[in-house]
Structures are given as C-alpha cells and as structure tokens.
Amino acid sequence: MTNQVPELSFKDIEKGDTFSINILKDALSNHGFFSITDHGLSQDLIDRCYACSKDFFDLDFQEKEAYSSVGSKGARGYTPKGIETAVGEKIADQKEFWHHGPVIDDSYDKKIPPNIYINEVPNFNENFDQLYNELHKIGSRVLSVISLSLGLDKDYFSPWIDKGNSLLRSIHYPPVQGNTNPHRARAHTDINLITLLIGAEEGGLEVLNKDGSWIKVEPSSNAIVCNIGDMMQLVTDKQLVSTTHRVIQDLEQESKARYSIPFFLHPAPSINLKSVFRENDDGILADDFLDERLKAIKLY
C-alpha cells in the first residue's frame, strides 16, 4: 500500500511511460489521489486568477453578499463562511467560496446556470473563463488516461463531459482563530468525476489512507493535484476510489489565510451514471445524483 501521493509528469503518462503508468494505477486503486507536472497550464494565468480571488474576498462582506448563491443551490456566485457542511458533520467548514461555470449558450442543458459577473474586480470573469477552459482541457486529458487504465477507449468519457456541468471554485480559508477547531474543511469526498486542484502547495490538504492514517499532500509548486470523485467511484463499481480528504490547520504553525482553486469535472445533467462494466446497471441521472449530494452538504 502506498503511503504517499505520487507526483508524475503528465507528459510521461500520456506518452505511455510504463513506470509512471504503474505508479498511477497503484495510486488510483489505493487512495485515488495523484499530482501532475508538465501539464501545460500557464503560471501567469494561475497568478492572475489568484490575484482576482484575493481582491474579491477582500471586499466588504456586504459587497460579496450581493452576489449570494442563495436560490441557485450554490451553483454560481458567492457562498459565505459557515454554510457548507461535510456529510455527517454538524460544524460547518471555515471557508468562503465563489462558483464559476462554463460560458453557456442555447446548446447547453437548461439546468446549467449562467455565470455571475463581478463588477468590483476588473477582468475577474475573463480570467476565470480562461482558467475554466484550460482546466477542462486538462481534465479531459486526465480522463482519457483513466479510461485507458480501466481498459476502455480513451474517449469513453468525452460525450459525458461535452457541455458538462463542471465547476470552478475559488476558496478563501480565513486564518483559524484559536485551537479548538483546526478543521478548515472537514473530512469529505468530492461529488464529481475527477477534481483538479491548483494551489495545494500552501499545505493543509490531507488524504485518508486505507490504514486510517492521514497522508499530507505536499506537491511541488505549480503541480496540479488530481483525485477521483464519487461519480467516478460509482460508475467504476468502486474499482477507482473516491477517498476522504480534509483541509486542516497545523496548530504548530502560524495560521494565515489560505487560497485554493479546485476544478470539479462533472458530466452533463442528462448523463446516466451507470457502470462502465455492467450493461444491466440502471444507473442514476447525473442531475439527480448531484441534487442528493447538495442537499447532504447544505448547499441546496
């Protein structure tokens, strides 16, 4: 059993390097987390998006609250600290966040809402539109590698995510006050197919290993951390694992603001999530699966 999250060159994986692919397969079957370098995402774009995020979260609460996500199931706009609560938990996470999706037109499912434009932060939406598109391309490439690892055609999941309901989340974790609650995001799994995370090098992200221990995720600067979500676990009959993870403040370190930007790769709402191995599986609509989980984490 691996006791660390491997960091791999995405170029090596895509060109079929046997050593890298074997490490990836081991990570996927054990805890569902790995990180990639050589992914092609522009550092300048990342820096611009983080600067925009900080500018937004630095606004007065009343200004941010004007973009509240209330009524949209948290799908777009601003969600303040103290709302999202991990499944089975009674204490809400210590974070505020902004949700941004694809630029839609009439060809998208009507259940996918439009983005909200922030007036106070110049170029926020332009930068996040670009980041969304770039991470969607990288996510599609990661899905192709995962498809091949399962013995499927590399484009198996492409129709699922075409005009999908993916989500870009900009998160601000304020400094933790006191020592009674170090949990910035309590233990949870992700809802979606796969997650791509930029900004994990700030520290605090931990993954639950099969032996019950917590593995610190410590990627190098500019690496993208990838993990399996519940939808992928469902359709692979748990061959791929959606692993519990958390964000925690090290009480021996000074607490400071933490920022991160995960990209949650989702299928279109109308996709039937059924086993990729069993023809007789009835499945569940992606939109129904998502609604059930949003209710569970109090975003509905």
From TrEMBL:
Residues 163-267 form the Fe2OG dioxygenase domain. One of its GO terms (biological process) is ethylene biosynthetic process. It catalyses: 2-oxoglutarate + O2 + 2 H(+) = ethene + 3 CO2 + H2O; L-arginine + 2-oxoglutarate + O2 = guanidine + L-glutamate 5-semialdehyde + succinate + CO2. Its cofactor is Fe(2+). Keywords: Ethylene biosynthesis, Iron, Metal-binding, Oxidoreductase. Transmembrane segments: none annotated. PROSITE patterns: FE2OG_OXY. Its EC number is 1.13.12.19, 1.14.20.7. InterPro entries: DIOX_N (IPR026992), IPNS-like_FE2OG_OXY (IPR044861), IPNS-like_sf (IPR027443), Iron_ascorbate_oxido_reductase (IPR050231), Oxoglu/Fe-dep_dioxygenase_dom (IPR005123). It is an enzyme of class 1 (oxidoreductase). One of its GO terms (molecular function) is 2-oxoglutarate oxygenase/decarboxylase (ethylene-forming) activity. Belongs to the iron/ascorbate-dependent oxidoreductase family. This is 2-oxoglutarate-dependent ethylene/succinate-forming enzyme. It comes from SAR86 cluster bacterium SAR86A. The lineage of its organism: Bacteria, Pseudomonadati, Pseudomonadota, Gammaproteobacteria, SAR86 cluster.
